[in-house]
Amino acid sequence: MRTLYGSMNTKLIIASLVILFSFSASAQGGDDGSVVSAENNFYNQSLNTNNKIEIYPNPAVDFIVVKIENSTLENTEFELHSIIGNEMTITPEDMGNGQYRVPVKDFATGYYFLVVKDEVTRFKKAYRFLKN
């Protein structure tokens, strides 16, 4: 019995490797020798570096700075929510070069979510920060 299971495990491992290698080979190019574009390659999609967004300082005291690099955003908007979901009124200041300053001086100490969104490109992502 032990030999039978060992043999089946070996066959499963070999079959898995064959499938894995055939998948990665087909991702590199089509059967006709053509190269598959980066948009169709699953591995390249997961490494997409568009819209790199940083928020600092964290924890914040007077303001937070939002830095957006490699942006595909066309109409960037911001929302600020308390940890319990209440929307806070903010007036972000565009500092140029993809940087925005958001005043938080008058808010209570606690955790907040800053939502960066763009309706045109359908981008929306929330970032948590601590206000001291």
TrEMBL record:
Keywords: Signal. Residues 55-125 form the Secretion system C-terminal sorting domain. This is Putative secreted protein (Por secretion system target). It comes from Marinoscillum furvescens DSM 4134. Residues 1-27 form the signal peptide. The keyword Manganese does not apply. NCBIfam families: Por_Secre_tail. Transmembrane segments: none annotated. InterPro entries: Secre_tail.
